[in-house]
Amino acid sequence: MTNSPQSASLEHIRVLDLTRVLAGPWCTQNLADLGADVIKVERPDVGDDTRSWGPPYAKDADGNNSTEAAYYLTANRGKRSITVDIATPEGQQVIRHLVMQSDVVIENYKVDQLKKYGLDYASLSALKPDLVYCSITGFGQTGPYAARAGYDFIIQGMGGLMSITGERDELPGGGPQKVGVAITDLMTGMYATIAVLAALTHRERTGVGQYIDLALLDVQVAMLANVGSNYLASGQAPKRWGNAHPNIVPYQTFATSDGHIIVAAGNDGQYRKFVQVGDYPELATDPRFISNPQRVEFRDTLVPILAEMVKKKSKEEWLELLESAGVPCGPINRLDEVFNDPQVQARECAIELPHPTAGNVRLVANPIKMSATPTRYNNAPPLLGQHTNHVLQELLGYSEQQLAQLRDKNVI
């Protein structure tokens, strides 16, 4: 897939990226992987906040730390970086000129912050009516919380995710828990990608652009999925179940003699096979555990017995036994085990790109696999302002003298 000579789905699209941190850059990296020309606008001398969110840093060719934070590398490949101070009139004019050469603007500034610079949707769409403009904020453009700053961790709490994530309150370690990655940011970036593609499709049919208002809180509520739907149908707020399932037993994690596994016995036959290969055949016929409703009722009796059973064998022994018996199972892998897994390697889930200061950087691949227009990985995440001169000369025809004047005024 890397550097494919085939055409890319979005190679005719240019995106002006006024985002930073994760939700917005995740969206624009998706668009870049699909072939769009993404121009990342950053603050002079500082750049995206995540450039300083280290360690860890990428290693250079000699194995020493570079200045490229791994967090920044996560969401910025395939883009061209330019530095523009949008707080200056000259910088605002540069952005307007670039908008006229772009199809999409994506930003994640606070509500109305870009309005004072004349870079809001109303101002820019007056110049370019077919512009697709996407705003990403914590709480959206309307409502009593619109002016608040939104952070993934806070939204996970406010949006209900932490109320259903974590061990049961009555067990050791019980209590609310956030997800191990900034899942709300990432899902907002994914929804933004979908929305931009839908708006571009609409524009191709009608010639008309539109405004997209995306909020982290809205996304968090939406991604509750069946749990949210269950509440709306029943009026009963669900509780945390840790790694267990509220309706199926056994469907959870277990500690083996040397690690942890997941057992997902979704029916009575799978349960019987589980206890039989574990040398506890009496559990298959015990009337308290003979069917799933009974196992759910007597969960607190059965699960400790199963936990003792599982501890008697190693992780690899259990995985081999359960897979042979047709019982759904899986390991809980550390990331070294993830990236060494033969299936992960066969699916090319990690890629390597040459970098101007960090040698070759290893990155997580885009999971989209397309036959006619595969994802592209043309460039590593750019250095701060790496493409300023080239972009302003190529797209706007700025002369060396104009660039020097803007640089003298610290505009670029």
TrEMBL record:
MF-aspect GO terms: CoA-transferase activity
Name of the featured protein: Putative acyl-CoA transferases/carnitine dehydratase
Keyword Transferase: yes
Keywords from the named record: Transferase
Gene3D superfamilies: Crotonobetainyl-coa:carnitine coa-transferase, domain 1, formyl-coa transferase, domain 3
Species in which this protein is naturally found: Solimicrobium silvestre
